[in-house]
Design goal:
The protein is mainly alpha-helical. The protein contains eleven helices and two strands, in the order H-H-H-H-H-H-E-E-H-H-H-H-H. A two-stranded antiparallel ribbon has the order 1-2.
Length: 223
């Protein structure tokens, strides 16, 4: 996937979102309680996936549409987390440093709010069998882990990723979701030069049969 030229904070932010692109396509589906109709939800997530694939022209549409859906369903932390991720992507669409920072901070504020609203009730499946609590934490983790150190989010991102992996809900989650988490964990371990741990997670993703398997296999060959 092509990543357009951008500043370091925006590049790092984008890398996290690209890693969750397969997750978005594999697990997002209209929740049964959604106020928005299925067509509106499908259009919004379609723009989101195009945006994480590097299409800058889709970023604003993704942020606006997911933002509207989140506002219509304020009790839905997953929608708010994805709206935050889309908003953060707006940092790569401007050359003005204060606008980049503003987009990043606005997106992070939405993600923080999504995490804060999680309750035991959100352990129930919401999007194609994925517990809302797990998907919200995973979206947050992927974004936090890719941020520059100035944001002081790496430690929290690592903790959230670990919580997802160790959750008693994880084993019963859809294979596409689990493969995305294993792939992300493998890449984080590789970045930290924990080769044995990286191989463990990447092997799980490669053997999953999910769409993420090919990417995991390629990373294994590079270890």
């Amino acid at each position: 996937m092509h990543t357009p030229p951008t500043t370091q904070p925006a590049r790092l932010m984008l890398s996290a979102l690209l890693l969750s692109a397969a997750l978005a396509g594999a697990t997002l589906a209209p929740p049964a309680h959604a106020a928005a109709d299925a067509a509106a939800f499908s259009a919004a997530t379609g723009e989101f996936i195009k945006a994480v694939d590097g299409n800058d022209s889709a970023v604003e549409a993704a942020a606006q549409q997911l933002g509207k859906l989140s506002q219509a369903e304020p009790q839905d932390p997953v929608l708010r987390a994805y709206a935050g991720a889309a908003t953060a992507m707006k940092a790569r669409t401007t050359l003005l440093p204060w606008k980049k920072m503003g987009a990043a901070e606005d997106g992070l504020a939405l993600i923080d709010k999504a995490l804060a609203q999680l309750t035991p009730a959100h352990d129930a499946p919401l999007y194609r069998g994925t517990p809302a609590s797990l998907e919200t934490r995973f979206v947050a983790a992927g974004t936090f882990l890719a941020l520059p150190s100035m944001f002081n989010r790496h430690e929290r991102g690592a903790k959230l990723l670990d919580e997802v992996l160790k959750s008693p809900l994880f084993d019963a989650a859809p294979v596409g979701f689990k493969a995305s988490v294993w792939l992300r964990a493998g890449l984080e371990a590789q970045k930290s030069q924990r080769s044995d741990e990286a191989r463990q997670w990447l092997q799980k993703a490669a053997a999953s049969g999910a769409p993420q398997a090919a990417a995991a296999q390629a990373k294994l060959k590079a270890l």
